[in-house]
Structure formats: C-alpha cells, structure tokens
Amino acid sequence: MEDAIILVIAPNEDGRKFVDQLMYRKKSFAILTNNRAEEKMYQKMGVKNVVRIDTFMTKKWIVPQIAVDKIYIFESSLNLSCRYLQICRPWTSQEIYIVTRFWSPRGIYRGMGADHVVYTKNGDVEFLLER
Questions:
Q1: Beta-carbon contacts of residue 71 (< 8 Å; ≥ 6 apart)
Q2: What is the share, in percent, of the chain residues with pLDDT greater than 70?
Q3: Is the pTM of this model over 0.85?
Q4: pLDDT at 47 over 70
Q5: Exposed end of the chain (fewer CB within 10 Å): N or C?
C-alpha cells in the first residue's frame, strides 16, 4: 500500500507521544477524533490531516476516500475505543492495534476485530512503528 496512510485515534498523552514520533519520522498519517478541542489541539501541533467524526451517528460513518493502512487506537475508555474499532474495521484489511493500560478488555477488542491489543505501563509504544 504505497499511498496508504496510518490512522491514529489518540485521545490521551500516550497517543500524543506516538503522534510526535510519527511526525518526527515523517510518516504519512491522519488523526481521527470525535471532538473539536482535540481537533484544534492536533492542528496546533502541526498535524496536517485531522478528521472529526460523529461517533454516535452511524449513518455518517463513511469509508474514507484515501487508502488506510494500519490503525492505532489509544484507549481512553472501553466504550469509545469499541466504537472507534466498530467504525474503523471496515476501512482497512491491515492490522488494527489497541493500546491500553488495562488488562481486562483484551478479549472484547479481539472479538470486535482488533488484531493486536498492546498493554503498556508507561505509554512507550514507539516499537510499533518498526513493524
């Protein structure tokens, strides 16, 4: 997938550190968010592609016109992460990673289509960019 972009849902500090790494490595990526404040914050950070989506309106969940490569979802809550997973799974046949600080939701995420559930204590998941 030459022109495919990495999609990141990063509503927390761990996600922001990951986005910093993507920018540092000059990777092609987009941020997906469901709120205006987060959208503005990422734009101020210099992220060029920030997409805001209404996570409650299922009729507005349109597959993007761009090719989506891997997806990284940084967990802020189980419900919201599951919603993002439900939205994004049809967008790619590539791997979807859920990054969490909690052990309990592994089975739930895998059952909903996540390929990998990565547990982290310190939020350092830069190694995922080597894959």
A1: 6, 7, 8, 9, 88, 91, 92, 94, 95, 96, 97
A2: 92
A3: yes
A4: yes
A5: C
